[in-house]
Design brief:
By secondary structure, the protein is an alpha/beta fold. The chain has one domain (about 60-260). It contains eight helices and seven strands, in the order H-H-E-E-H-E-H-E-H-E-H-E-H-E-H. Helix 1 (about 1-30) runs antiparallel to helix 2 (about 35-60) and helix 5 (about 135-150) runs parallel beside helix 6 (about 175-185). The radius of gyration is 19 Å and the shape is globular. It starts with a helix and ends with a helix. The mean pLDDT is about 90.
């Protein structure tokens, strides 16, 4: 029964997204570009809210949000996070300060085939890069995203692993995109750890178990903006170590809570 309900929830979300995208495409084609852009931003917020509202209501999905920062967030910063599932993108969008918009370095294949989401990725200033493709084109896409992000005041986000971890183990971090982002716009770095998504790597796992296992997002640390290439390299190494430590900590806490509850 729960699997059927999950399918119905997904179907409702997709139908809403198809309708939102239809309206936006008509407006971009025949109306004011400014109006279309403003409406896109509004629909982006609505779409994310719809996802979380439906999942919370019909699947009991809850996010454990932990802020371990010792200082308030600045107006703009670069987000560095580990990556476990496609759900990490809307999750991070939902958890950023409400007056801001997150913009992602994402794989190019996400730019087609997903109602509304692909539309947003192509229209709203994200960087779509071909995994294991031409690095020159990837750097150009990232530079374009960072320049637009700086102009519009959005928050750039990167998953330095490059690929999702389907086992929960932290993958190696790649530095090229990260260094390019800081080269264009030197920003403080928000280190974020996400855990739980890897358990739903397969569609069947999602239908059976989504909402039953904890899904945690932790703001781990805020690092100062690197001033040199060497500092940027060291900052990325620090990010990885902080995320790895946070993963171990989250899992130890989860295991302890399960033992107490059994």
């Amino acid at each position: 029964m729960s699997s059927i309900l999950t399918v119905l929830v997904i179907a409702v979300v997709l139908l809403c997204f198809v309708w939102f995208e239809f309206i936006l495409r008509i407006l971009y084609a025949f109306g004011s570009r400014k109006r279309a852009y403003e409406l896109s931003l509004r629909y982006e917020t609505r779409a994310i809210h719809l996802i979380f509202s439906l999942l919370a209501t019909y699947r009991g999905f809850r996010i454990t949000y932990e802020n371990r920062l010792k200082e308030p967030l600045p107006r703009r910063f670069l987000v560095v996070s580990n990556h476990q599932s496609l759900f990490d993108i809307p999750l991070l969008m939902e958890m950023m300060p409400k007056e801001t918009k997150a913009r992602f370095v994402a794989k190019k294949s996400l730019g087609r085939g997903i109602p509304l989401i692909s539309f947003f990725l192509n229209r709203l200033g994200h960087a779509l890069v071909q995994q294991d493709g031409d690095p020159v084109h990837a750097m150009q896409a990232i530079e374009k995203m960072m320049l637009r992000s700086k102009k519009e005041g959005t928050l750039p986000v990167i998953f330095p692993e490059g690929h999702r971890s389907t086992t929960g183990a932290l993958r190696p971090f790649h530095s090229a995109g990260f260094r390019k982002m800081l080269e264009v716009d030197p920003l403080p770095i928000l280190v974020v750890c996400i855990d739980g998504g890897w358990k739903y790597a397969k569609l069947g796992d999602f239908f059976k178990g989504f909402g039953k296992e904890p899904y945690t997002i932790r703001f781990v640390a805020l690092l100062p903006a690197p001033e040199t290439k060497q500092q940027a390299k060291q900052s990325l190494a620090t990010c990885r170590q902080l995320i790895e430590d946070a993963l171990n900590d989250i899992r130890a806490e989860t295991s302890s809570a399960k033992k107490k509850g059994s």
